[in-house]
């Protein structure tokens, strides 16, 4: 049993390393991308492209929000910025290209500027994007929403497990 | 004698395996036979109107105003080619690619791209689109504050959303260039 | 030694119960069980659990920040090591252990025991012994080893095996 949990965790981390995304599978929690994605859909992420494109659906962690947000890119800019030279820096390059993005939920009237927080106009592709949505399975993730959001369902699950443990042999 | 937990475990592993197999098969089918839009799209844009905005809703602040542009355009497009048995919806969007001023950087790969209009086609019998005088849904502003005098091109992008499986993307050049005019006061 | 009550209609349950008492049977024949196979497997198993623990620790320490190259390289190392250990464990089970249920020694003789049943419904318990490079085979019907109440009859098991071993191993 411990081995099953261990392997599941290691496979998850393995996927994270392959996709370069801290969370390679996410469950959609809001209706802001309807009708493309509904609550409970499972999304497969990939995070190895240097830049994402307009129209791509990305997942990001908004500041001051613990849940990841799945929205579409509507603005993209690649900006060449000088690297602030610290004494320790050994790189020869003096500038670096950074991609800035503005996102929007398909089902929302307007873009995500209010979600970014005051004074923040863009997302940083490298720092804030967890992954780019490549594919999806509808609805299967709904069980995790039930477990995390519905306390009665959680208790019912525990009760069912406990009862089955009582009646099972060994 | 199998316990309830064992049965639940077996059932969930069968379901998971099944879903993943279907997912892989669908992905292979979609990737082997990607939908391509063969029809020519007809697109014509009127001259944009540029104005100076100073609120956050237009990407600006009071101290740092930004030039915003809005458009009116006509478009005829037929998305029927993109639809197959696994299509849930087609998300079509029109965006402007603003040319790079940088003369030594002639690859437009990193050009600024800004979506000005989009539409969801989720009814398979209404994949034909023909409208005149469409207003841009979203105001256009760039990363840098100025627009006037700069040039750009219109492109159409589409994202095919399946019932299950991989998302497919495509872009089409709308063969229409623009030059942003002086600010209208 | 402890006995479990098993269903005498379930061949796999009886086989597992019989396998678990091979040690007791061969002890009476003067063999000492060698734990080198199970020890190796245990070490490999614990290492993979430790590696998974390390991944968890790294996640907490670096707050799962994938823009941190240090974290990603440590994590890559841990993941690769985990799968190497798992692969070694798999190969060991498949190619070295090869279904050995018991491994024992007596003086300078070593014995390996393999057991199997043809299917879930075939109660014939096939036993293969490897003693100093020679292979000997026998088959015992599992239902002859169990009492009607589902407990293993260790005496019946011992006498069957003893008889079988003595048929080719005359030395004491």
Automatic annotation (TrEMBL), chain A:
Single GO cellular component term: signal peptidase complex
Locations listed in the record: Endoplasmic reticulum membrane
Class in the EC hierarchy, top level: hydrolase
Gene Ontology biological-process annotations: signal peptide processing
Assigned EC number: 3.4.21.89
Domain (Peptidase S26): residue spans on this chain: 16-74
Catalytic activity: Cleavage of hydrophobic, N-terminal signal or leader sequences from secreted and periplasmic proteins
Position of the signal peptide: 1-16
InterPro entries: LexA/Signal_pep-like_sf, Pept_S26A_signal_pept_1_Ser-AS, Peptidase_S26, Peptidase_S26B
Membrane topology: Single-pass type II membrane protein
Organism domain of life: Eukaryota
Molecular-function GO terms, alphabetical: serine-type endopeptidase activity; signal peptidase activity
Keywords: Endoplasmic reticulum, Hydrolase, Membrane, Protease, Signal, Signal-anchor, Transmembrane, Transmembrane helix
A Pfam family the protein falls into: Peptidase_S26
PANTHER family reported for this sequence: SIGNAL PEPTIDASE COMPLEX CATALYTIC SUBUNIT SEC11
Subunit and interaction comment: Component of the signal peptidase complex (SPC) composed of a catalytic subunit SEC11 and three accessory subunits SPC1, SPC2 and SPC3. The complex induces a local thinning of the ER membrane which is used to measure the length of the signal peptide (SP) h-region of protein substrates. This ensures the selectivity of the complex towards h-regions shorter than 18-20 amino acids. SPC associates with the translocon complex.
Record's function text: Catalytic component of the signal peptidase complex (SPC) which catalyzes the cleavage of N-terminal signal sequences from nascent proteins as they are translocated into the lumen of the endoplasmic reticulum. Specifically cleaves N-terminal signal peptides that contain a hydrophobic alpha-helix (h-region) shorter than 18-20 amino acids.
Family membership noted in the UniProt record: Belongs to the peptidase S26B family.
Protein's UniProt name: Signal peptidase complex catalytic subunit SEC11
Species this chain originates from: Pichia kluyveri
Automatic annotation (TrEMBL), chain B:
Primary localization: endoplasmic reticulum
Membrane topology: Single-pass type II membrane protein
Pfam families, A to Z: SPC22
Location relative to the cell: Endoplasmic reticulum membrane
Chain ranges passing through the membrane: 12-32
Segments forming a coiled coil: none
Cross-referenced InterPro entries: SPC3
GO CC terms of this entry: signal peptidase complex
Keywords assigned: Endoplasmic reticulum, Membrane, Signal-anchor, Transmembrane, Transmembrane helix
A biological process term (GO) from this entry: protein targeting to ER
Family to which this protein belongs: Belongs to the SPCS3 family.
Matching PANTHER family: MICROSOMAL SIGNAL PEPTIDASE 23 KD SUBUNIT SPC22/23, SIGNAL PEPTIDASE COMPLEX SUBUNIT 3
Functional note: Essential component of the signal peptidase complex (SPC) which catalyzes the cleavage of N-terminal signal sequences from nascent proteins as they are translocated into the lumen of the endoplasmic reticulum. Essential for the SPC catalytic activity, possibly by stabilizing and positioning the active center of the complex close to the lumenal surface. Essential for viability.
Record-given protein name: Signal peptidase subunit 3
Organism of provenance: Pichia kluyveri
Automatic annotation (TrEMBL), chain C:
GO cellular component terms, A-Z: signal peptidase complex
Annotated transmembrane regions: 42-59, 71-92
Pfam families on file: SPC25
Keyword Membrane listed: yes
Locations listed in the record: Endoplasmic reticulum membrane
Membrane-related topology note: Multi-pass membrane protein
Keyword annotations: Endoplasmic reticulum, Membrane, Transmembrane, Transmembrane helix
InterPro entries attached to this UniProt entry: Spc2/SPCS2
PANTHER family (UniProt xref): MICROSOMAL SIGNAL PEPTIDASE 25 KDA SUBUNIT, SIGNAL PEPTIDASE COMPLEX SUBUNIT 2
Function of the molecule: Component of the signal peptidase complex (SPC) which catalyzes the cleavage of N-terminal signal sequences from nascent proteins as they are translocated into the lumen of the endoplasmic reticulum. Enhances the enzymatic activity of SPC and facilitates the interactions between different components of the translocation site.
Family: Belongs to the SPCS2 family.
Protein name: Signal peptidase complex subunit 2
Source lineage: Eukaryota, Fungi, Dikarya, Ascomycota, Saccharomycotina
């Amino acid at each position: 049993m411990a081995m099953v949990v261990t392997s599941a965790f290691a496979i998850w981390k393995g996927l994270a390393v392959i996709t370069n995304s801290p969370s390679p599978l996410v469950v959609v929690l809001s209706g802001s991308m309807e009708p493309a994605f509904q609550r409970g859909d499972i999304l497969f992420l990939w995070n190895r492209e240097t830049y994402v494109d307009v129209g791509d659906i990305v997942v990001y962690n908004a500041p001051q929000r613990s849940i990841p947000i799945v929205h579409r890119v509507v603005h993209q800019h690649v900006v060449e910025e000088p690297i602030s030279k610290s004494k320790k820096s050994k790189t020869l390059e003096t500038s670096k290209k950074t991609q800035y993005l503005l996102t929007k939920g398909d089902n929302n009237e307007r873009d995500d500027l209010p979600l970014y927080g005051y004074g923040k106009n863009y997302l940083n592709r490298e720092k804030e994007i967890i992954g780019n949505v490549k594919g999806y399975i509808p609805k299967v993730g709904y069980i995790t929403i039930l477990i995390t959001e519905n306390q009665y369902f959680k208790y019912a699950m525990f009760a069912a497990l406990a009862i089955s443990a009582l009646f099972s042999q060994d | 004698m199998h316990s309830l937990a064992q049965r639940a475990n077996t059932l969930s592993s069968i379901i998971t395996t099944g879903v993943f197999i279907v997912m892989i098969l669908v992905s292979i089918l979609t990737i082997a036979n990607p939908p391509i839009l063969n029809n020519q799209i007809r697109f014509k844009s009127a001259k944009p109107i540029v104005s100076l905005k100073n609120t956050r809703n237009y990407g600006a602040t009071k101290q740092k105003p930004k030039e915003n542009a809005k458009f009116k355009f006509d478009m005829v497009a037929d998305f029927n080619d993109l639809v197959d048995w696994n299509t849930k919806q087609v998300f079509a969007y029109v965006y402007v690619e603003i040319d790079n001023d940088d003369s030594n950087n002639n690859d437009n790969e990193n050009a600024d791209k800004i979506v000005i209009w989009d539409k969801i086609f989720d009814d398979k019998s209404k994949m034909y689109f023909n409208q005149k005088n469409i207003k841009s849904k979203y105001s256009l502003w760039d990363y840098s504050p100025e627009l006037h005098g700069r040039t750009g091109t219109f492109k159409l992008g589409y994202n095919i959303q399946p019932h299950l499986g991989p998302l497919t993307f495509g872009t089409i050049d709308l063969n229409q260039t623009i030059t942003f005019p002086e600010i209208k006061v | 030694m402890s006995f479990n009550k098993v269903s005498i209609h379930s061949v796999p349950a009886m086989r597992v119960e019989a396998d678990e008492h091979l040690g007791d049977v061969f002890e009476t024949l003067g063999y000492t069980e060698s734990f080198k196979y199970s020890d190796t497997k245990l070490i490999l198993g614990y290492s993979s659990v430790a590696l998974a623990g390390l991944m968890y620790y790294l996640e907490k320490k670096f707050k799962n920040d994938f823009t941190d190259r240090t974290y990603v390289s440590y994590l890559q190392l841990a993941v690769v090591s985990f799968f190497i250990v798992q692969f070694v464990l798999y190969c060991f089970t498949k190619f070295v252990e090869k279904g050995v249920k018991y491994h024992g020694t007596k003086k300078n003789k070593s014995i390996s025991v393999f057991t199997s049943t043809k299917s879930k419904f075939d109660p014939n318990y096939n036993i293969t012994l490897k003693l100093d490079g020679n292979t000997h085979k026998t088959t015992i019907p599992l239902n002859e080893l169990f009492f009607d109440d589902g407990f293993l009859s260790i005496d019946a098991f011992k006498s069957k095996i003893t008889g079988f071993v003595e048929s080719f191993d005359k030395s004491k």
